[in-house]
Amino acid sequence: MLRLLVASAHLPAATGAGPGVHVYARFRGVPRSTRVVPAERSPAWNEMLVWPLAARPLRPTDSLALRLQLWGQPEAHRLLGATTVPLCCLAEDPGLPLDLSQLPLRDPQGHPTGTTVSLRCSYVPPGQVAAGNVTSQPPEGVAPCLSPPRPTPVVGTAIGMASHRHPKPAAGKKEDFQVRVRVLQGHQLQGSAIKPVVTVLIGEHRFRSRIRAGNNPYYNEVFSQHFHLTPAQLAAVPIHIQVLNSRAIRADAIIGAFKLDVGTVYNAPGRRLGGTWLSLQHPRHPDAGCCGYLRIGAAVLRAGEPVSEREEAAGSQEVEANLLQSALLTPCVATLQLRIYRAEELPREEPSRPFLAGSKRSFVAAAVRASFAGRTVGAGGTVGAADRCPGVTVSPTQLCTRAMPPDAKPTWNEVLFFPLRLPPLCDAVELAILSGSKVLGTAALHLSHISSAGAELEGGVPGFLPCFGPSFLPFYGPRRDAADVPSDTMVAYRGRVLLELSTHTGDSDGRQQDAIAPEDITRVQRLLPRRHRLGLCAVFYSATMLPPASEPLRFELSIGNHGDTGDTSCRPAASASPQGHPLFDGNRYYCMPWHDSKPVVAVTSSWEDAGQRWDGQNLMHSVGERLVSSQGAALPVLQAQRPRTRLDVELRAARLQLLQLLASAAAAGPPRRAWAELLPEAEAWLGRVAALQAEPQAGVPDVLLWLRSGARCLACARIPAHRLACSALGPAACGRLCGRTHTLMLEVPGHLHAQLRVRLWLGRVAESQELPRYLEGALHIYAETYENQTKILGKWSRQALPARPSFSDVAGRVALPRERIRPPQGWCWDGPWAVEPPRRLLPEPEAGMDEVLEEVYENQSRRHGGEWGPAAVPSTDVAGAEVPPKEEVACPQGWHVTDDWRVEVTGAVDEAGERCPHHSPEAPDKAWEYASLWGGRFHLQRRAGDACRRRCWRRHMVPELPSSVAAIFLLEGTADAEEMPESKQMAATPKGQGHPQHPTPVILCTFERPSSFQLRCYLFQALELKPHGTKTTADPVAHVSFVHVSQSTRVLPGTLDPVWDQSLLFHRVQLHGDPRGLRDEPPAVVVEVFDQDGGGAGSFLGRSVCTPKVWLDVGRRKPPRLQRYPLQGPGGPAGELLAAFELLHEAEDGAMARLSTPPWRQGTFGIPPGIRPVLRLMALEVLAWGLRGLRGRCLLPVRAPSLEVQCGGHVLRIPPITDLATNPNFPINAFLLTLHLPVEEEYVPPIRLRVLDTQGFGFRPHVGQACVQDLARFRHEPDGEEQLPQPCVPVEEEDEEEGDWWSKFYMAMGDKAKSHRRTHRDSLKVYGCELEAVPKFEGLQDFCQTFPLYQPGGQQGDDPVPVGEFKGLFCLYPLPEDPGVPPPPRRFQELPPSQPQQCLVRIYIVRAFDLSPRDRNGMCDPYVRVSLGAKTLGKRDHYVPNTVEPVFGRMFEVMGTVPLEKDLRVSLLDHDLLPPDQEIGSTTIDLENRLLSRFRAHCGLPRLYRMDGPGRWRDQLSPSRALEHLAHSRGLQAPEFSADGTAVIFGGSTFLLSHFESGPPTYRHPGAPRERLALHVLHAWNLVPEHLETRTLYNSAQPGLEQGKVQMWVDIFPASLGPPGPPVDITPRKPQSYELRCVVWNTRDVEPGDISAAGQRMSDIYVTGWLDGLEEQKQRTDVHYRALQGDGSFHWRFVFPFQYLAAEQRCVLPRKEHFWSLDETVLKVPPKLILQVWDNDKFSADDFLGVLELELTRLPRPAQRPQDCTLKPRLSPWPWGKARGPPRFSLFRQKLARGWWPCVVHEGGTQRMAGKLELSLELLDEKEAEERPAGKGREEPNAYPPLQPPVRPDSSFLWLLAPLRALRYAVWRRHRCRITATAALLLLLLLLLNFIYSAPGYLAMKLVNPLRLFGAGSKH
Length: 1916
Known about the structure:
With 1916 residues, the chain is mainly beta. 11% of the residues lie in helices and 37% in strands.
């Protein structure tokens, strides 16, 4: 069922006035419409539209068409916007609704209208819709988890296990899958000087990548593996990815690993993980952190599903943005302890000797086997959960208890230990009871029912570990007497086992099983609930559709072994209905004649008290049905419960928390949100409630209802006990089926054995006083015996009966004399023995009768001796009830009177006219039933050959004292009888019947007066019936069964879509019980369709179970609407039934008489006008173009095929094709068929096509057939002329270089860096799908469509193979009813010539990607092969070696005759050393569709018209001629151009060249204005532009699985139109030669690796370098010995020549992988320079010091000073700025760079700086390298720049010869700061001391101043 919730819309220009708006939706041709609301800005509907899908599930290709329309407006002004919603996501995941908010709508030309609509679409698969059959419903409480649906999915995890978005895909039949893993690149892999290699394990298949070097390797390799599994099995397949260091030894080789399963990829959007970074972890050291990152892409391809577009490998490089981390690095380890105590009620073996019955030797020697946490690995490749969790074995973990000696209650007292990883990977603990190697019964404990992961509910409900019991667990298995039917349907109770399960963290210390401690055994006895007697009661209302068995049939009710007549361990009970032969209902089926005395069965049993658990379970079911209204009643009940086990405590807490949250949400007030927001919330609440409905600890087995024939079991229905349980807490706590009459279907696969209408009740015997309230009739209990007589010498006698007592049971085997039968203890007789009339042999009145007799009794009375006169009640029926006089008796609806009233003179009256009793003991002859032989079938009317007769004696009994317990539960199994001598027992007691003197009481429920109903069945049509065998048609007839009556429709010969148009009336159907109960639970109507081919019962085609609409008040009746009911056939879905059913109550007020009778047409009742679809005169135009690819049957070629078109009962025969080999088209192509079809598109019948061949002698075999559904797509409504969009003047663009075709391709792909163009003027349209899949091109089948023809016959399998194709089209439109009104013009008038024509076909193959690998290395060697008819192009030598993404750039030309050679096949093959080559995949193109399509698909229209150059016009027709051809094909007037060609009148509009071009063209080689204008107008008609289509490749060996994609296009040039233009050159670009020159100048701060004799750290440094992927070109510098402080000087030049493809920014590396390789592998890797710094050692391996990796396209800008060279990001100069990394640039643009770059070392998952390198990088092309040559190192020519030898200190080499000079480098460089500071301090100290020394003298001289004194003395 598809549901569409239309929430609201947005109309920007709405004013609220004018006509209203509504949403019109169409799905599969069936329209639906919302109500009309005012045209406001935001109109709201919140209306649900429903499409019943019946047996046709939703397909990924289905879509939903939406139209927002104005009400009551003309077609031209009605549409406000339209859109198409694809439903592929909904088909893939039905559990995830499709929410679309503000969905934009478009006009017919595809332009946005500004209006939007919000909606929600959901899908319910056909198998999930409840059909009302208890046997087909799954067990209650099987919710997968306790958590509600999560809105946000979890993508995946690392080692351990993978999280899932939602539960794993449902298990079904096996399908074909392909799992692909693409390893892209690594990042920051831990280790130094590593050469990493990646291994990928997909399931059991291991793949290995190439070896790369460095910490950031690039791979881009694809690995794939195919699987044929179910989706559930595929989801468990593991994907294990490891990164290894190829240099290290095996024990230390692993760098990191990541583990997930296929289910993670399967549940990802699009079933794909694109460009995801994996966080690698070391498996042995998970706490060590991340070991690096690996970028991968993974996808799961499913057969028949489209594959989403993949992400490009050169996507985002941000690791954190798309990182997949480990959710659980170290799974929690726990141990499951399963305690097995004892068993009871185990089945007994059938004793070989009767005297062993009842002894212990009749029991079995039993053991219990348990299995958990494993699955068996089979041939299909199923991989269990053990592969996903280390430490768990692959094979199933199975443990078994010891086998106990035969006993009724074996005791084991053992505990089994199972390892468990949390969260659990396996959900079920499988248990089985064994008897030797035979499995007696099985059961399962689901961990999802007995545990919780926690935090499921808002409010933080804590999780709990798995726990169970102690409680009994029932086991089920096949019956011993059910060997002739499938064992999976005959489920029988096989005993139960007392179990307890607990979980403890930690391991089990190696133990697997042990004995249970005595204190635990005592504790369990205290925890078990007390036993209570339960009473089970069933009232059988009707049983029909029974098999015509030769033996009597009976129904048996059992719970456990109680009530099972085949079990002798329990006391006999009244568990079986009275057996009898079913009666023919007069039409087709057999039913039990129970009438107003319904059989009742009752079973008492003793079980542990499960009422509290049943109350909680039923309350949760009630809350799930009503959500809010029932939670108030459930809360106090759950709060008052007293849990006994831990699981009871946890479930009670979770349920209380959920109900309190629900009550809080309800108390918050009514929500005021739209339905689109309320539905997800309501579904989430329902999911939470459903998760808590399971109750695994009830311990009471299910109720089984059997249909038995003698000792054989024919069918069974299994009903969970809690659904029948009655509770004293109110109706909410009672089971859903408790005390309600419902319909059960007792069936086995492919066959229905009985339709049973029954009322069941289960409850405590002590509380059964309320049972009569649930029963609608009065209970009567009888003792029964049969009097048998044999005719001897013409007289009836009870003497000398052969092997039969004179009084016996109904089977005649047990002697039951009346005088010796006594009532049970506590019971007494209520009346004498009386003969019971054999009403079970009387047919139901009017059942299947064509003529009935109406009778009325006229009553008169008189006084003694007086005259007769009218009685007080003048007219009665036979029972004495008052009826109207005969003159007032009305004829029932649908019947007519054929005779007048007459007096019945043979009635049951005496001679005086007094009425005799109808059935009286005084008339014993009327109670006998006769048979010819004992054991035969009895009948009422005595016949001449009858020799046996019998009659039934019954005696009513009642309890002696009133009791609060229901009377039927006081019988205690039997009625007592006096002992009889064993010699008088004529037959042995049958098993299960108790003692021969204890007959089982007969319980009947009698009804005073039944209710009369009339059932009306309106059968209009059946659709898509599937005939049997090789038949192409059928003669269908429908049989309708209801309760105990049935009728049939008429037989319609020779059709698979029969239109019966018939009403079946079931008059006066007597139904017992309250009519209001019938309204709630109406009886089911079963419709079976048979193929009545000849005599007999016919061949069964399909069955449908329908529910009628009940009307108790006929005055309020509304006519029903025809609905689609699915038909189920022997092999699955078998079509649909279009019908309606209503059940009308015939009340005494005479309302039925006022109801009109369906019209009488041709001997049958037709469907009334209000229900029957309205028919309208329609015209069906058929375009029969031709037949293609027909294959004859039985190796006979097809000679002259003809076609028959059937629709609505009319047949159109098309003349045959005379010569199929020369012209496969029909001689006459257009036909017209007038017929009456329903106006509603839902009721329109399909069109059936049949192709017949004409052979010799008039033999016309059927070649193929087809069924055309959804005729609404062919409906044509008159509309106006096509309106062209108004052109807009484009923005003027500057002139550009024309460039090659690849520039146009890369510009269209959005990669401007690879394109030489700067504008989109001359653009190329790249479609991501086939051209036929583009929606606006209508599949290129606008002229004629292709209908596949299939083999005649009904059994075609799941994927039938077509035997041919029909090319044609249909057009359906109404015709005027008035003959005077002219009909509309014919549609198929302007047709192209149907003769074959020669065409030149050019196939351009550009590239392929995502190819499925065919070689062991994950690659393939693809080449192209093109086939058209018998011509094949493509050579094996033109292959691209070792790639899955080849670039071909090839063009093929071939001549072909269309349509004789219409299928163009493009194949990609894998080149092998020896042919034949393996096909990778192929695609087929229908050239005829492209040539005939009006979208002009034979040659795409370029954007510009060029006369020369690479973009030269290549079509045969110029744009102006193409425009004229377009006008002719569409019936328009020819275009009229102006003289200068700058204006044209076309389609009623005038176009100017200035509308499209604002000035003269600026591109090269423009054409004439006339042609340019014509090209602009052509583009306005939405024709196929110049394009590139992406076609999917498929392989016949793996049907439905995508093998890759190829990008290509096809040009078709008919020879009649002249020569075409030149082909397009798409030769691939060639890589350019470059030369990278890297000069290593100096190193700084390199970590020293050695210590000198003076204790100084130094290194012998040298540098190696190479380009990534070119390790063989590795170069190294000389060694700088004794470099102190890591400072080295080299002046050394590296020269690396390489090939570079600038368009892809990749280095092209052609090389052979191995010396034995035949082909060079072309690798494309990013240009990356890798430099490593090493410490040279003489006698040991060199030490690695650091590495520098520079990607030339993203080169970090170097530092100009060594102190500025750091790893840390630069700080922003502004306080609000953030830290920034170094800016990057491309060396291919800058050409030259010099500076300092940091070297790093990876340790512990992090990196640190290990030195600095001063480099100069220069990039030269090939010409520049030749002009400026330079040698490697310092070799000649030493130029550009010239390198001088480095100035290195001599002390580096002459330590002993120049020790002082060496000190300069050894001491000064290390301690120059300290030495300078010390010298400065010493100088200051010397100055200070000098000052102190000189200060006294200086002061003395300053004071004395001897010079002044000396000078003064000289003067004097």
